[in-house]
Amino acid sequence: MTITYDPAHPRYLDEADLRGELERVYDLCHGCRLCFNLCPSFPTLFDLIDAKDGVVSALTPAEQDKVVDECFQCKLCYVKCPYVPPHEWELDFPRLMLRAHAVDKAKGSPTLKERLTDQFLGQTDLLGTVSSAAAPVVNALVGRLGSLPRRALQATVGIHAERLLPPYTRERFTTWFRRRPSVAVESPRAEVAVFPTCFVEYMEPAIGKDLVGVLERNEMACSVPDGTRCCGAPWLHAGEVDRFVQAAQRNVGALAAAVRAGRDVVVAQPTCSYVIRKDYPIYAPGPDAELVASRTFDAAEYLVNFHRAAGSGGLRTDFTGPVPETVTYHLACHLRAQSIGFKGRDLLQLTGARVQLVERCSGIDGTWGYREENYELSKKVARPLVRELSGANADAVCGDCHLANTAIREATGSRPLHPVQVVARAYGIGEDA
After folding, report:
1. Contact, 32 vs 93, CB < 8 A?
2. How many of the other CB atoms lie within 10 Å of CB of 112?
3. What ranges in 263-298 are assigned the alpha helix state H?
4. Taking the model in full, what pTM does it have?
5. Burial level of 53, CB count in 10 A (0-12/13-18/19+)?
6. What is the CA radius of gyration of the chain?
7. Among 23, 40, 66, 385, which is disulfide-ready with 70 (CB 3.0 to 4.6 Å)?
8. Could you tell me if 254 and 296 are in contact, meaning their C-beta atoms sit under 8 angstroms apart?
């Protein structure tokens, strides 16, 4: 049994070795139980071991794998677990689950439908390019929950027919950025490279537009690095390590060039910022990955840090546009796992809004909640979030994660905004300001 979360380790894909490490970690988790309420994996794990009279070695491979399948990579183990590295026990549950998926893929065990699901969810740039070009047609076909096209999608590629999918946009973010009138920021207070993410690029460019507007309102020069694509998270979560490494190396090269040119990397989606900061240095190790990770920031984090930095002069607070009196702010799991504090809340408070914080999981977590086999469990995970949002009765709902926001819209009917969009409206920026 080898304690390794390094994909380059010679025994990383050894199934027998993995089984021994699963047994070690499951035994530690069963003895602690601090994570009992984080995700379905832990109650399932504890029940399975309790049914074996506490004998962890009695778990079958199928029972071990059930725990793996119910982990949706929220990363909150890093917030709650007392044994994560550098603790001597070196317990890294999320990366162990990623290793298990990688081993499963390496031995070729997934069914044809599972492979189709992985390809559909992983080919974000290909799917985004095609779907954006035909956005009105695509959105009409897949936008009606439970419709014949959606049932066909479920039957072929395993995306549940009742799950609301983010609609595509006709004009992509990078197209808008390239075509917009040139904006020259004289004596910029900072230079920023905006990493679009596939969500902003193909689905919600309004977030990117508002981010650029807020940055430029505060005399920060914006650019979009050439050559970046999807961060690759769907490949990583599906165990497609080689595909993820390719995505990481491509993006690291493009972003490192931007950083060396004096720019900070700002990302408007928490899963993508997490992947760049935490996963790229492990899967595409080297000086470039470390450099990029050290200069990558969540959008709200970057703005709040700038506002608080000594000598920066702070952000402009001459808000002349509409500001909601009360805001319910959903703190996404992949932001909590980055341990950067409540920067989205802090940014919203600069406008004068009263902000109520909600720290509940949406049950989507990358692509896990879209899969047919996880749909009912995903809805169960999201119930506490829906309950808190429904009882908040705020003027606006905000969240940094577009996937979580889409799940909130599906469950409540309200359309959440990204925190930078609320700030943009307060500045008077945006079509509906």
Report:
1. no
2. 7
3. 270-274, 280-283, 287-294
4. 0.95
5. exposed
6. 22
7. 40
8. no
Residue numbers in the chain where pLDDT is lower than 50: none
Q: Which residues contact 251 (CB under 8 A, 6 or more apart)?
A: 195, 227, 228, 229, 231, 232, 276, 280
Please report the pLDDT score of residue 183 as a whole number. 85
Query: Fold match between 173-308 and 326-427?
Result: yes
Q: Judge: domain 173-308, CATH 1.10.10.
A: no
How would CATH label the architecture of 326-427?
A: 3-Layer(aba) Sandwich (3.40)
Q: Which element (helix H / strand E) includes 209?
A: helix 205-217
For 189, 309, 316, the CA distances from 313, given in Å and listed in that order, are: 9, 8, 9
CA 188 to each of CA 110, 200, 218, 221: distance values in angstroms, whole numbers, following the listed order: 51, 25, 9, 6
Question: What's the pLDDT score for residue 109?
Answer: 66
Residues 165-217 have pLDDT tens digits of: 999 999 999 999 999 988 888 889 999 999 999 999 999 999 999 999 999 99
Find out whether 322 and 425 touch, Cβ atoms under 8 Å: yes
How would you class 137 by CB atoms within 10 Å of its CB: exposed for 0-12, middle for 13-18, buried for 19 or more? exposed
Is residue 153 helix, strand or coil?
helix
> Domain residue spans in the chain?
15-106, 112-157, 173-308, 326-427
- Integer Cα distance of 402 and 268 in angstroms: 9
